[in-house]
Amino acid sequence: MEGIGTTSLWSLCRAIDFQDLQTAIKERDSSEILPPIKDASDVNAAPLKILLLGASDPCHIIKTVARAGRHGRRNLEFVVVESQPTTFARMIVLLDALFSESETGLQDRINLFLDLYGNLLLRPVTFTHLQHRSTHFISTLPTSPTLALAPHVRITTTLLKFREKDDLDTTFQFYRSDKKPFDLAAMWDARLRRYHGARYDTRAAMVDWDYNLKLVPIFPTLDVDTYNRFRASGQCFPIRESGGSEANRTWATVERLVDPREKVGVVKWGYFSDVVVGPWGAFGGDCEDKSVLKTRNGVKVCDVGEVVEKVVGGLVREWKGRRGITREEVDSGIREIPDGADEDNAHPPSERKPTTTTIHLATPPTLPKLPRTFPTGFDHIYISAAMAHRLPEVSPFLASPTSNNSVNASKLDSRPTVIVQNVRYVIDLTKEQRAEYTKTVLAMAGKMGLEPAKHPAMEGEGGEYFIFVRGEERVVEE
After folding, report:
1. Closest of 421, 423, 419, 374 to residue 399, by C-alpha
2. Domain ranges in the chain?
3. How many Cα neighbours within 13 Å face the side chain of 256?
4. What pLDDT, on the 0 to 100 scale, is given for residue 124?
């Protein structure tokens, strides 16, 4: 799996709203969203607890938090388990870019996020922002176990060891440093040379093969120009025709490399991630506004970068507005306020008190201790493909069925679930390797008393996720 590297920076599969598990299959049409605002009947319900194992990308957190207003007022608790502190640092930076209480305009906030998320080289203004916020995190995290991104979104480090907190601090020190050179463009080229090998000089033909024969059949929103630009330079989201000039240090990870002369392991900063698929899977594969997915005369109305911008923009608008009243107001970010009323009092009480989100950071050695911290278990457990071997270890953490669910939850949403990422977009795998992965995941789940949730989109092996429930709770979606 040389093409996707040893460390993941982004999700290859779609982002999930854990209060609407249909989003693991497809996005709803815009005509189906924004149900009537719920009352406050579920405000005292136990928080919805979600374990994210190896997700490497905050996309699931972003979508679940942004759309929390659609599902009542149930608070959210995430436990994010990652092996590398660099992944935590990148998550914090990306969540801060979208959710921080700053005066940054909506479009500037979206551009900032996209620049950090999917561009090898940053605009100078983005790099300055990264340095400034890294300094803030360095001064805040050692003095407080809780980092408040917004009044109702906070990150805690109480589950991390002191050494892991020091590693997190070191990562932020690296982010803000501009004294030591970090030639990310040269590292990108080195990754390409290693991946292509003797065929490096004919890589254009290899890129064309990967695009047309491997990705287009499973990722129809991906356009050829954007994909070619990513494979050549690592730039995925052109912003206002401005080019990047500073290395995106949030893409850097740490690996232990063996010195060929000394024969000893040396820890190095470098780029060890994806060079073949790209960062569009989380937000670029589908959209509630289906008009952006259309084609005219065989040409896509929007390229995949514009689809991502549309989706992320909609999520930010929805989060900022807490709950929308009409689809047009969510899209425009504008809502009429009655004459003589101030903006805060123009909203019903349930709107003025949004859900509280707590994000706990943890590492794999902490897993055996989680049942003591969360004795009732987790409502949803997400496991990435890289962590699928830990399915037997974490499946006992699944909560028992409870009545504390959203009022309008579907049958599948109302069950504790284990969601395992499929290898649909790992294009270097053979058909036999994919089949073996599927067989192994199903076998491990079966031994733990889990069965696939019966859903029309779960049939076959082409889905992005396996969704499991306890055997006696198997459900059938209409």
Report:
1. 374
2. 21-198+200-242+277-320+350-473
3. 4
4. 92
For residue 420, list its beta bridge partners.
383, 466
Contact 142, 165 (CB under 8 A): yes
Model confidence pLDDT, tens digit, residues 181-214: 899 999 999 999 999 999 999 999 999 999 999 9
Task: Determine the angle formed by the axes of helices 85-99 and 304-320, rounding to 10 degrees.
Answer: 70
Q: Please give the structure tokens belonging to residue 213.
A: 């024969």
Structure tokens that stand for 112 in this block: 């900032």
Full DSSP string of 377-414? -BSEEEE-GGGGGGHHHHGGGBPPP-S-S-TT--TTTT
- CA distances from residue 293 to 124, 235, 289, 306, 356 in whole angstroms, order as listed: 32, 22, 8, 10, 33
Q: Which two tokens stand for residue 93?
A: 């930076």
- Cα separation of 50 and 79, whole Å? 6
Name which of 457, 440, 472, 333 is nearest 27 in CA terms.
457
Q: Assign residue 392 a region (left: φ > 0; alpha: ψ between -120 and 50; beta: otherwise).
A: alpha
Q: Distance (Å, rounded) from C-alpha 385 to C-alpha 438?
A: 11
Contact 395, 382 (CB under 8 A): no
The tokens describing 452, both together, are 């696939």
Whole-angstrom distance between the N-terminal and C-terminal Cα of the chain?
A: 37
Tokens of 274: 């994806």
Helices and strands, number each (H, E), in the chain:
14, 15
- Report DSSP state, residue 237: -
Secondary structure (3-state) at 199: helix
Residue 100, pLDDT > 70, answer yes
CA pair distance 50, 472, nearest whole angstrom = 21
Residue 247, SS3? strand
Contact indicator for 271, 191 with CB cutoff of 8 Å: yes
- Which tokens in the block code for residue 126? 């983005």
Q: Which of 222, 198, 197, 201 is nearest to 210 (CA)?
A: 222
Please report the beta strands in 297-352, taking only residues with DSSP state E, as ranges in sequence order: 299-300
Give residue-wise pLDDT tens across range 107-117. Answer: 999 999 999 99
Amino acid sitting at position 82: E
CB 422, CB 385: distance < 8 Å: yes
Residue 10 in contact with residue 279, Cβ under 8 Å? Answer: yes
> Beta strand 265-270 with 253-258: parallel, antiparallel or unpaired?
antiparallel
Average pLDDT, the chain: 84
By three-state DSSP, how is residue 382 classified?
strand
